Structure formats: C-alpha cells, structure tokens
TrEMBL record:
It is found in: Cytoplasm. This is Chromosomal replication initiator protein DnaA. Oligomerizes as a right-handed, spiral filament on DNA at oriC. GO terms for molecular function: ATP binding; DNA replication origin binding; lipid binding. PANTHER family: CHROMOSOMAL REPLICATION INITIATOR PROTEIN DNAA. Residues 356-425 form the Chromosomal replication initiator DnaA C-terminal domain. GO terms for biological process: DNA replication initiation; regulation of DNA replication. Signal peptide: none annotated. It comes from Fusicatenibacter faecihominis. Keywords: ATP-binding, Cytoplasm, DNA replication, DNA-binding, Lipid-binding, Nucleotide-binding. It comes from the Bacteria. Pfam families: Bac_DnaA (PF00308), Bac_DnaA_C (PF08299).
Amino acid sequence: KWEEILYTVKLEHELTDVSFDTWLKPLKVHSFEKNGSANTLYILIPAEQQPAFGYIKKKYALPLRVAIAEITGLDCSLEFILPEEAQKLEAKKATVTSNLNECIEKANLNPKYTFDTFVVGSNNNFAHAASLAVAESPGEMYNPLFIYGGVGLGKTHLMHSIAHFILERNPETKVLYVTSESFTNELIEAIRNNNNTATARFREKYRNIDVLLIDDIQFIIGKESTQEEFFHTFNDLHSNKKQIIISSDKPPKEMQTLEGRLRSRFEWGLIADISSPDYETRMAILRKKEELDGYQVNDEVIKYIATNIKSNIRELEGALNKLMACSRLEKKEITIEMAEQELRDIISPDEKREVTPELIINTVAEHFGIRPEDIKGKKRNSEIVFPRQIAMYLCREIIGIPLKSIGTIMGKKDHTTVIHACNTIVADMEKSESTRNTVEIIKKKITPN
Ligand code: ADP
Ligand code: MG
C-alpha cells in the first residue's frame, strides 16, 4: 500500500522521476499509532536525507496525507522522523509495553481475557454494556458492579476485560483482581501471624486500590471473619469512590447465608446477569476461538459442537481445543466422525455430571491454572506437586477409589506415593486453615450444592 500511496502523490502532483526518486522513494513507514480516534503515522527519513528533512516535510506532508486518506480511508497526522528519533521512539514504546505488561501481571490478569476477545450475545449483552460503562468511568456510575451467572459463562473473562481496559488507558491506576479464595487465604495468613503489622499490611494493601475486582464471592459466605473484613474493605473503598466489581454464581438476594449488611451493599450499584448462550452466540464464540487460534474447522463440525454443548462456554471451548489438539497430533483434518468419536464423553445424552477422576483432575488443574497433564505428569516443582496431592486426596475422599487405581490414573504412580499424598494433605489441612479453605472451595467446584 505504501508504494501505491507514493505513486498516487507522484501522479497527482505530476512529479518527475528524479524528484520522485530523490524525495519520496526513500521514505519508509516506521510505525502506526492509534490513540483513541487519533491516528499517527510515523515516516522514517533515511539519514542521508537529513539535510532535506525540512523541505520534505513542508512540501510533501499534505499531499501524502491526502493520498493516505484516499487509499486507506484513514485520516492520519504524519510525523517525520530520522533514524535517531526512531530508535528513541522504539525504546519508549518498549518501556510503555513492558510497563503495561508489568501492571497486567501485578493486577493478576490473564492477557487473553479482554473485551476484544469477548463475544457479545443476547445472553450477556447487558453485563457486557455494564462492564464497558464501568471500565470507561470507574468509580463514577455503577458501584459496585455485581455480575452473576453459572459456571463457565464468562464472568471472569468480563472482569479481566474491565481491568485491562482501565490499565490500558491509564497504567497508573491501581487495579487488583483477586479470587475470594485468595482474599480469604491472605487474611487467614495475616491473622495467623498474629501480629498487628501483618494485619495492617493486609488492610493497607486492600484499601490502597483504585479498582478492586473480587471473583466468586460465593466462596466467602459463611466465613465470618472474612465477611467482616470484606465489609470494612468494601466501605472504605466505596466511600472513597473506588470502583468495586464482584462476581458470584447467584444474585445477592439468593445468597442465603450472606450477611444482610453485605447483601444490601451489593445491591447499591448495578446487578447484571449472564445466562447460557443461545445457538448464534455459541457459533460466534466458536468462530472467534477458531480465528484467535488461527485454525480452520469446517462448518459441519462447528455446528455439531454448537448444537450439542449448550450450557457452558468453557466446555464449548474445551471441545474445540480437544479436536484441534487431536488433529495436530494425528496430522488429520477435523471431521465430523472425529468430532463424534472424541467428544462422546463431553456430549453425553442426559448431561448428568458424575464425579469421575477426570473431573477431579480437570477441576483441580483449572483451579490452580495448570494443565491436567501436569497433574498426571512427573514434574516435581511445588506448583505442581501440591495440586497433584490434592487431586489424589480428593479422588480418595470424594469417590473413594482404591489407592492403586488412583496411582494408575495419576500417571502410573506407586500406591505409596498416593498414601503419602493423602497423608500430607490431611496433615496440612489440620495445620493450615488456608489449605482447608482451598480444599473446601475445590470440593464445592466439583460438587456444587
Ligand atoms: P466463569 O468465570 O463465568 O466461570 P469464564 O470467564 O472463566 O467463566 O469463562 C470460561 C471460558 O469461556 C473462558 O475461556 C472464556 O474466555 C470463555 N468465554 C466465556 N464467555 C465468552 C464470550 N462471551 N466470548 C468469548 N469467550 C468467552
Ligand atoms: Mg470465574
């Protein structure tokens, strides 16, 4: 396109070859920047042309701008830069990006969960609009924003999108995303250390925030000290016009054991629900995923998945992931036969969910943000070992299968390893309230109600 633009300028201004070759041809596009509705195109003038810098700028900036608008339909302001400035610009950009990445990491965000990757459908358009409004003016309009809906319908994705949006606009904002589990565990640790500095640090951390996102609040109900602490955090932030965003599996009024005063506060702002996606939305989500993963799956297969998996977007994505992995592994195209074969476990006729070792492994892996294969694997780092032990413990505790079978399921491990794992978790739960809390939450995820 750039050459086309240059030639357009040549033609329209009837430039001779020598003028064209001298002034325009050496120009290169350095970068394009979009900032809200303002576009800037940076054009690199090579070092040899430095003496002509002023001349080029004066004579060709406007013709170029016109030609760009004609050809691309974009109105850009132009910045001419020399190699030296280009370097500075790149360095600056690199620091901006790495700063932003740092902020994203500090805020505990998944880089993939943004508004760009979120598909809006009839099941979530209200929650999406509310989230965008809050992201555009945090602390001003709807406070708190309370998003509720069933498992795997996009609550966490929307919350992260709000946080990304706010940080991208203003990386200085102190944004923090936490699950109610980590909120509880941090509090437990602070109290357990039984000194005032630990508790004070906890308070300072949570009251020094501009935007607090707290996910799956249902897991703190029934825990008195956590509710109490959260109540104070909430009041502090709210009275300082700091934005609070909460998600839950139910609306506040159905949260039976939630303290009344917290419930009424949750109802102060805006409550938005997400329900199960309809067929069109399911198709759109699958298409989006396909696009993001750079994969082409035939229509018949996409329709098959969208028709058969209805209630949970995580499963919808999981089904497509499974087929893509399978096709990569077997170096075969995804066909409808492959889909029927591979998805038979997921697409069960009566959708009844039985607790299987697989379900336990998947839930534990997801909870800790690791892969199910890691749990079955041999890695010995603590980020993997602890979840693996929990998975073994839960297989024993919830479905009571023999130690030997657990060992086999968990990637051919000795039954003494399983005994050791179960004992470790039991002992750990006795010692540590935060481990108890974590195990309890995972259990609730496996067997809700
Ligand atoms: P929840 O927190 O409600 O259990 P998540 O936000 O974790 O659900 O969503 C589960 C998965 O489905 C995530 O991978 C998420 O990216 C995806 N997802 C959910 N809703 C959408 C949507 N509207 N568009 C695209 N992906 C979605
Ligand atoms: Mg979630």
